[in-house]
């Protein structure tokens, strides 16, 4: 029998089931018959509560993957690292640097939450710096850096490298996960600051495989109507079977996606779960 992979949303901006907590942030649990991967760790304490409510055992984690270094994806990173001392941490080298948002004179620090860069670097034996596509556990991959090629996709906000808010942060640490299933690739986005379409293009270029599903944050919250319409046409041309936009998609783009893809669209809330057959090559 082929292996299965189960994906569960642990942290998201919405929760629609009893006894689950929502917060602005993202985290997903990816479990094959052989391995467990934690993708991002939410913003504050929702993860701590939800892993108990969803009966997820953090001690089982083989790998923790960070989509990027923003506070809403690294909130329970210390807890995750401590809960699973054997787990490797996959992250882009730029994920640990300071990050800012806002305007000159009103900068907000929006980098790593719950843990500092030096605390992370103090555990070098468990760090895997991902600039290139990398297999995390059999069948589960992280993209590494995503080339920015499309015209309309920017990082989606006033993001800066320094507190003077002059030099824009390209957020080159942004990366996504893809799971190789018998139906095609299941892509899980953290925030997609690289752009959803740039991300899908990179994954197709690297794998040569079709995209079956796209789950997670698409960061269309500040996108122009033109970019939203273009993104929808690009998604349509790929004949994607499951779309579960969440987190930083924003109400306008969420409404547009639900209208454009009534058959493919799915909720993406804390506790939402999908199961797919993993490709047999990983059995
Ligand atoms: Zn972000
Ligand atoms: Zn985010």
Description:
The chain is of the alpha/beta class and 283 residues long. The chain has one domain (4-282): Ribonuclease Z/Hydroxyacylglutathione hydrolase-like (Metallo-beta-lactamase, Chain A), CATH 3.60.15.10. It is 19% helix and 24% strand. It has six helices and 16 strands. A hairpin with a 6-residue loop joins strand 6 (100-101) and strand 7. The relative contact order is 0.18. The chain binds zinc ion (ZN) (2 copies).
Summed up, what is this model?
With 283 residues, this protein is of the alpha/beta class. 19% of the residues lie in helices and 24% in strands.
Poorly predicted sequence stretches spanning 5 or more consecutive residues: none
What's the tally of helices? 6
Cα radius of gyration in angstroms: 17 Å
Within the CATH hierarchy, at the fold level, what is the topology?
Metallo-beta-lactamase, Chain A
CATH architectural group: 4-Layer Sandwich
CATH class: Alpha Beta
Q: Estimate the mean pLDDT confidence.
A: 97
Please summarize the sheet with the most strands.
7 strands, mixed
Quaternary structure: single chain
The strand line-up of the biggest sheet is: 8-5-4-3-2-1-16
Q: Helix/strand/pairing class, anyone?
A: alpha/beta
Extended strand count: 16
Helix percentage range: 10-25%
Bound chemical compounds: zinc ion
Strand portion:
15-25%
CATH H level, superfamily name: Ribonuclease Z/Hydroxyacylglutathione hydrolase-like
Order of helices and strands: EEEHEHEEEHEEEEEEHEHEHE
Count of spatially separate domains: 1
The end-to-end span amounts to 9 Å
